[in-house]
Amino acid sequence: MRLKTDLTRAGALLAAAVLAGLAFNAVSPAGIPLFGQWDTAQGVVNAGGQAGVVDVGREIRTVSQARALFDEGAAVFVDARPEDAYAEGHIPGAVSLPVNDFDEKIPTFWERYPLEGEIVTYCSGRTCEDGHRLARLLEEVGYERVRVFIDGYPGWAEAGHPTRTAGKTDAEAAVR
Amino acid sequence: MKRILCHPLMELAFRWLLGLTFVYSSLHKIADPAQFAKIVFGYALFPPAAINLIAVTVPFVELTAGAALMLGIWPRPAVLIVEALLLLFIAILSINLIRGVEFDCGCFAFGGAGHISAIPQFLARDVLYFLAGLQVLLFSGRRRWILTPLKDRNLSAAEAG
Asked: 3-state secondary structure string, A37-90?
């Protein structure tokens, strides 16, 4: 009897909490849609909504497309991951600009790379949004042609394309 | 030992500990549901269609149950919810520990990129919380600092005999 009352009341508390959560989400500026994009086959996973950073319009969605840009040599590849991830391996010639250290690193980057140049950001693939976050930040400081290679370093490496580790300059790595 | 464990102040202490913990741990998730949704995705246990719904509702369940425990509103029903949540957390942590999935717990704060939580530590802590919850659930004396209507209080006092 007492357990039944307890369970009924627990159910009432639960229902009130769920309704409060849905109501709060509907009015909160940080609110998200009830269903997100959580399929890596479809692209970068994210909760969606206005607070999100994923902009499908600027995505480079295949490794071969990224490789073509790489071979052209006109675009600057920018690595959004933390420095230690970059050190362990990155796309040859890529510049390290960890999105979490953006404010600190952007002045140097800004001096070296012209605003009208083509930029390709990447991170750890379709489960990370840092490539998109970095692209947005770069646009905010004036870069005009920023795209995001969504398969990132893991996609690049798995496809067997060349990689570099820190401590080896590109020139050294090339003659090995 | 039994006298200490069954003391009303012990019940109050455990109830507030659980209440505070659950309220505190809900706040950062409520403030950033998109980030919490990514954490839930990282658990690699839930169907895609459920992830946003979990991220939107579960923090409010934590908040409601935690607040009810602290205020003394329906303490037993509230602690039932807390125990159910703790069992869920223990299951999530254990499954991912066993299968070696690296993930961010997101329990009390969101880590930075590449942040991985110390799973065994969180697991041990959840088990301790669960035991504290059992004390609150099974406590049969008169509870201190309770807001539940008088009628219910008399009922449980009569039952406690």
From this structure: ECCCCCCCCECCCCCCCCCHHHEECCHHHHHHHHHHCCCEEEECCCHHHHHHCE
Q: What is the pTM of this model?
A: 0.85
Residue of A nearest to B48 (CA): A38
- Judged by a CB distance cut-off of 8 A, whether residue B158 touches chain A is no
Q: What share of chain A is helix, strand, coil (3-state, %, to 5)?
A: 45, 10, 40
pLDDT category at B157 given cuts 50, 70, 90 is: low
Contacts of residue A16, defined as CB under 8 A and 6 or more positions apart, other chains included, come to: B64
pLDDT value of residue A174: 45
pLDDT exceeds cutoff 80 at B53:
yes
Residue B109's contacts (CB-CB under 8 Å, 6 or more residues apart) are: B28
pLDDT tens-digit profile of B66-81?
999 999 999 999 999 9
- Does residue B6 belong to the interface with chain A, where contact is any CB pair within 8 Å? no
Instruction: Tell whether the model's pLDDT for residue B156 goes beyond 60.
Output: no
Taking CA atoms, B46 is separated from A19, A33, B22, B40, B117, in Å, by 21, 17, 22, 8, 19
Site of tokens 């009303």: B8
Strands A76-79 and A118-122: parallel
pLDDT average, residue stretch A121-136:
94
- The span from the CA of B125 to the CA of A117, in Å, is 51
Q: What percent of chain B has pLDDT over 70?
A: 84
What is the Cα Rg of chain A in Å? Answer: 21
Q: Does A45 touch chain B (CB under 8 A)?
A: yes
Compute the distance between CA of residue A169 and CA of residue B41 in angstroms, rounded to an integer. Answer: 37
